[in-house]
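Protocol step 4 of 5: obtain the predicted structure for the target chain.
Materials: sequence only (see below). No template structures provided, no constraints applied. The aim of this step is simply to have a reference model before the mutagenesis design in step 5. Sequence pasted as it appears in the construct record:
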Amino acid sequence: MLDRVWALQRRLIYFPTRGPLPAAAAVSPNGRDVVLRTADGVRLGAWYFPGHGDVAMLVCNGNAGDRSMRTGLATALNRMGFSVLLFDYRGYGGNQGRPSENGLTADAQAAQAWLVAHHDADRMVYFGESLGAAVAVGLAVQRPPAALVLRSPFTSLADVGAVHYPWLPVGRVLLDRYPSIDRIASVEAPVLVIAGDRDDIVPPALSERLYEAAPRPKRFVLVPGAGHNDAELVDGHQMLTAMAGFLSETGVTW
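Step 4 output (structure tokens):
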């Protein structure tokens, strides 16, 4: 059984939709189609939504779907003045390749490099959702942002796996580990952690543990009644208000 779990584990971690996706202009009048190129030669589809402010938001998706599922978030952030880059990892949204931890790391680096070419690096915020929060933490250690916003983050993939598969030695068989708990202390940016108190995919206790290990300045926001995929944690008012307030108080926006 363990051999089968080892062989199929990435199918249990990554749940991409394959595309094709519409043009960015069909999503928003100011949307632009972007092609990213990774260091290992993978072409990635992305959408860019320029804002009227000088802060840019890089959105690192969770493990399911594609960037079209984050258009509500992008629209809300765009209305707040942020420029937003939505991109899909390899294997997602019609992109070539297969997802893996190393692959998603390279994909996020390519997205950040594109955004830096169009915006001031010290006016950039990383937003990571669930698995994307782990991607964003890793990126923040290598390429510090102005701020890091983590929605439903976990301490490590092994910890999440132990919650859902307690009968398996998850820590021994995982190929992709996303050890955010080992990385978060090295982040040199303000950290905002947002979690739902009814999240049954990433228990809020894991998000809080990651928050406790993060350097200051930081803030933890628990959204009452919100599950992992509920609207309150996708583009909800409390989440957006918490982001706006934190970014203002830490000097990212003014």
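Step 4 remarks: DSSP finds ten helices and ten strands in the chain. Residues 2-249 form a domain with the Rossmann fold fold (CATH 3.40.50.1820).
Proceed to step 5.
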